[in-house]
Amino acid sequence: MSTTTAHLDRDAVVYAYPLYEMRRMRAATSPRRVAAHGEAPAGQRWCNVFTHSRHLLAPGRSRVVTPNNDTLYSTAWLHVDDEPLVVEVPDTQGRYYVLGLLDFFTNPFAHLGTRLTGNGARRFVLTPPGWEGALPAELQAAGSRVACPTPWVWVIGRILVDGEHDLPGAHGVQDGLQVRRLSDWIAGRPARPEAFDPDCDASAPPTPAHFAHQVRAALHANPPPAPDGQWLAALAALGLDPAGAPASHAAPDRLGPALDEALALLRGAETGRPTAEGWTLPPVVSGSFGDDHRSRALVALKYIGMLESAEAYYPMAWQDAQGEALTGRRRYSLHFGPGATPPVDAFWSITMYDARDYMLVANPIGRYAIGDRSEGLDWAADGSLTIHIAHDAPSDPAERANWLPAPAAEFYLCLRAYIPQPALLEGRWHPPALQVTGHSPSLAGTAAPEALA
User: Fold this and answer.
1) Model confidence, pTM
2) Of all helices (H) and strands (E), which one includes residue 89?
3) Hey, is 340 helix, strand or coil?
4) Same domain, residue pair 236 and 323
5) 10 Å Cβ neighbour count for 278?
6) Were both Cys, which of 134, 144, 193, 247 would link to 239 (CB 3.0–4.6 Å)?
7) Where among 207, 240, 267 does a domain terminate?
């Protein structure tokens, strides 16, 4: 096989990888049971219904990598195939929320909520690809109609919570989220979910056979947009023909190496561009990744469910100011000068994750994120803020007030900027570098800490 052919095979797998992850996530997160309708038929799940997380995520409570700890999640897998769906949202009384809509290629194609559609009660109509029917006058308000690029859509809602005491208000917003078929809405019938077969073992490893089955099924149900038609031939050469044509004898032999190479590429790569301060800025995405298939696949692997950049922007830190990997063996400080905290129109936070599994890290004080809404922070007299990141609790009370606990092993940070201002999106403001301030005494015997600058 030529080098050119091998690279084309790898790139075809990279193109298809988000479809594989969406099938896995649909199987892992769509409900088997909903309160008003009971268990789905054997082997099936429910779609076209919202499910809600009632508590802020903590370690062990998420199936989605790099989860946030600022909001409650409300999610729904929607099958928008033969008629529109009506999504109803209550008045949130000024509370920030967003329903992010992902097509089956993981493009964040629509956002419903505070930034674009306000906080008042609204009805939205999600229409199937190519649908051109008429809508009742009550559903024709500006911004209410949302054209879906694929028949399957994942809605990931985020509802702001300012601590445990604020949960009842957020629960009220969740309880007001409803989805109904257009015909049911017109007739005044109650919501009724749809049963479907997810046809996926979400815990199975990505073997060539498993990957091929998931991608073929995903493409069959969610045809790619016309500009991506050129990829169908490359996918067919790997036995991934969505029409279900038999694979050639060469296809299975080619898919295995291509899948191995693609996964190695994605697992070892970072999304976006590095800054001089050691952070990585994600690509600025507006509704679609376009032809940047590698970034799309990286996000699907590491940060699936990402919103478009104007809604939320996620710089990541994997290194300190000296370019060394972040580790619990060291202590760090992150200093924001006066008036130099992240420029946002909503709110910001910094969340800690274990670098091994991309999940939240258990710690003795139950603090998984720190930000402008954190209670009890110690701000300096000049308005600056220094966050202290370490495995061991600082001995100084002021530092302990601003402590973000770290695991013993390697970790990374995500700065979440909700409704970021242009200075952040345009690269005129960067997060400050993480400065090494010492090492963690309790871990001194686990490995010899390198010399500290």
Assistant:
1) 0.89
2) strand 85-89
3) coil
4) no
5) 21
6) 247
7) 267
Q: For all residues of the chain together, what is the average pLDDT?
A: 92
On whether residue 205 sits in a domain, the answer given is: no
Q: How many CB atoms sit inside 10 A of residue 263's CB?
A: 18
* pLDDT tens per residue across span 158-181: 999 998 899 999 999 999 999 999
CATH of the domain at 157: 2.60.40.1610
Read off the pLDDT band of 1 (50, 70, 90): low
- CATH code of 355's domain: 2.60.120.600
List of long-range contacts for 115-120, beta carbons under 8 Å, 24+ apart: 115/310, 115/311, 115/346, 115/419, 116/143, 117/143, 119/91, 119/92, 119/93, 119/94, 119/95, 120/91
Inter-helix orientation angle 208-221/250-267, to 10°? 90
The whole-angstrom separation of Cα 413 and Cα 66 is 10
Closest CA to 201 of 28, 30, 13, 18: 28
> How far, in Å, are 56, 149, 199, 231, 232 from residue 226 at the CA level?
40, 11, 26, 10, 11
Residue 8 belongs to what H/E stretch? Answer: helix 3-29
What is the spatial distance between Cα 104 and Cα 376, in angstroms, rounded to a whole number? Answer: 42
Cβ pair 67, 196 in contact under 8 A: no
By the 8 A CB rule, do 251 and 289 touch? no
Structure tokens at 444: 């001194």
- Using CA atoms, how far apart are residues 284 and 286, in angstroms rounded to an integer? 7
Residue 176 C-beta-side C-alpha neighbours within 13 Å = 19
Same domain, 11 and 127: no
Cβ proximity of 350 and 414 under 8 Å: yes
- Dump pLDDT digits (tens) for 47-94: 999 999 999 888 877 766 788 889 999 999 999 999 999 999 999 999
